[in-house]
From TrEMBL:
This is ABC transporter ATP-binding protein. It comes from the Bacteria. It holds the Pfam family oligo_HPY. It comes from Microbacterium profundi. Belongs to the ABC transporter superfamily. CDD domains: ABC_NikE_OppD_transporters (cd03257). SMART domains: AAA. Residues 8-250 form the ABC transporter domain. Keywords: ATP-binding, Nucleotide-binding, Transport. The keyword ATP-binding applies. GO terms for molecular function: ATP binding.
Length: 264
């Protein structure tokens, strides 16, 4: 794909759980280097959106493309092969779902590289680069996950996703389980990652916390009952929300800081 083509495209995506429609006609584009925040209350369809992008859920209608590849209809061996490419990586709300509690953080971070038979020296270099990108001290990674704070574990989980050099990082509620200090460190790590990686990496950050998204995202997408009700530059959406639902979300946050260098 060329540098101008979207890293992620959803066209008219709908998802059903049984007889219940969870996502309805969702269209979304994320370009290289862009950080897009998806905000909505519990039950709005945010996690289903993330799982659909990663092909853990098959859409009932529409198309999902990642790095120029239509992944909508991938099944079986083709789906497994695409996942091994590592073009899209998922960071869970709970980092212990990414980090094996019985394995050192160092080994967890490079597990995917070991499976892909990446040489040890290259794996160590990529691990060091990922740790630097998230601001995590390399001395900590000899510990088990239980020996790290919640914020440190989340940054280790992000590093684990970064070592495979993805084009797209999908983060599902990455700070919601953290205390205020840890939440700020993770948000700052994501801002630094955005600035360092530039067009090499696009991020889709899903959260109910519009304040954190305002601090790190270029665009905000507002999801309500499975539909996108607003999509625009973060500064504009926060300062001049158009949809009543967006207005209510913003009014519920006493103070929102938008990025000081938010890109158009």
């Amino acid at each position: 794909m060329s540098g101008d083509e979207p890293v992620l495209e959803l066209h008219g995506v709908s998802v059903d759980y049984g007889r219940v429609r969870v996502l309805e006609d969702v269209s979304l584009t994320v370009r290289p280097g862009e950080v897009v925040g998806v905000v909505g209350e519990s039950g709005s369809g945010k996690t289903t959106l993330a799982r659909t992008i990663l092909r853990a859920v098959a859409p009932a209608a529409g198309r999902v493309s990642v790095a120029g590849r239509d992944v909508t209809r991938l099944r079986g061996a083709a789906l497994r092969a695409w996942r091994r490419l590592g073009e899209a990586q998922y960071v869970f709300q709970d980092p212990l779902r990414s980090l094996d509690p019985a394995v050192t953080v160092a080994d967890s971070i490079v597990e995917g590289l070991r499976i892909a038979r990446v040489p040890a020296a290259d794996a160590a270099r990529r691990r060091a680069a990922a740790l630097d990108a998230v601001g995590l001290d390399e001395e900590l990674i000899s510990r088990l996950p239980s020996g790290l704070s919640g914020g440190q574990r989340q940054r280790a989980a992000i590093a684990r996703a970064l070592v495979v050099e993805p084009r797209l990082l999908v983060l599902d509620e990455p700070v919601s389980a953290l205390d205020a200090a840890s939440r700020d460190r993770v948000v700052q790590a994501l801002i630094a990652l955005r600035d360092q990686r530039g067009s090499e990496l696009a991020m889709l950050v899903i959260s109910h916390d519009i304040g954190s998204l305002a601090a790190m995202s270029d665009r905000l997408v507002v999801l309500n009952r499975g539909r996108i009700v607003e999509d625009g530059p973060t500064r504009r959406v926060v300062a001049h929300p158009e949809h009543p639902y967006t207005k209510r979300l913003i009014e519920s946050v006493p103070l929102i800081h938008t990025p000081s260098a938010n890109r158009p």
